[in-house]
Amino acid sequence: MRVAFVLGTTSGGTGRHVRMLAEGLTRRGHQVLVAGPRSVEEQFTYGETGARFVEVAVADRPRPVADVRAVLALRRVTRDADVVHAHGLRAGALAALGTWGRRGSPVAAGTSRQRRSLVALGASGRRRSLVVTLHNALTAGGLVGFVYGVLERIVARRADRVLVVSPDLGERMTRLGARDVRAALVPAPPLRPAKRTPREVADELGAGERPVLLTVARLAQQKGLETLLDVAAGPWEEAPAELGVATGPRGEAPDDGKGRAGVGRPLFVVAGEGPLRGELERRIAAEGLPVMLLGNRDDVPDLLGAATAAVTATRWEGQPLSIREALMAGKPVIATAVGGIPEIVGDAGILVPYGDVPALRAAVRMLLEEPGTAERLAAAAVRRGQEMPDGDEAVESVLHVYEVP
Q1: 0.85 exceeded by pTM
Q2: Considering only Cβ atoms within 10 Å of each terminal Cβ, which end of the chain, N or C, has fewer?
Q3: CATH topology of 2-186+390-403 equal to that of 198-387?
Q4: Alpha carbons 320 and 322: distance in angstroms, whole number
Q5: How does pLDDT run across 144-185, given as a tens digit for each residue?
């Protein structure tokens, strides 16, 4: 089988997912082509998997002239593919437009039966398929939201199959007219072993005996980091009585100078980089928040080893690698109940509504202060981590999707 992957600018999970699929397919004897910006080849080295890489400038935002060129380029480089599998909404829409005239456009000559046959067949004479995996949802409105909606309709109406990383995405694409919507299987790679002890990492962070709460996220609007900073700001002296945590005679926390219940005010640690760094740094400094921005890190397993829990306040996520890594490390998760997160976390964490600062702070307090909670959730995290699908299962899953007529 000849498979052409199409993707746009990415520096994270989408690029790694495509590399994993390309490697698995070439190992099974399939011919694989990857089309995308030069930057993704430089970062993910698809050529090393046995795939052929072709540079196509799929931009991360609308650029009319560049987009027309990308559509024409995709039309050319995917001509002989049996399956075109695009990843991401923009890549999916451009790939769909790139197949225009070969699959779904009117054919001027011939009988109606001949036209239908020509539409259904690719250059090789075999049935062609366009598969689109949607890895993200839009969290902004305005003109961006309008353009996003147009791209969604293109994908819904022209893709043979749409794979989604969360149920809400699937429901939306079905409403928009997608004919065949399925859950995408996006595994996390095996977690690398930590190179340092938790004590060494805690000392580097200056955490002392305080609990470390780790967030791995790009410093961008989608990740809800302003909510995380609101949580870090406190007040920590208020007891979450609704969660059944013991309090003093007037409802206050018993304080030994280290914080309520002796656990100490937690240190919030954020690993990641992004456009909001300056804004976040200014607020952290102005309010003296117990938050450290570490930038991009290649020692996430070490950080997880030192963390009491992983925390995310994100507006939306599909199947985030950071949460799956936390579970594989046996760490409880405190997260917003959005996108595909509830399905991943299961009983290994505490879920709260997006943007609900009191609820998120109460969840942190519950984990840190309620006897047995952290241990119970950590044991559940170990179980969930062991249940995570691996790369072979993901490759077999897409092969099944490709082979469905």
Answers
A1: no
A2: C
A3: yes
A4: 5
A5: 778 888 999 999 999 999 999 999 999 999 999 999 999 999
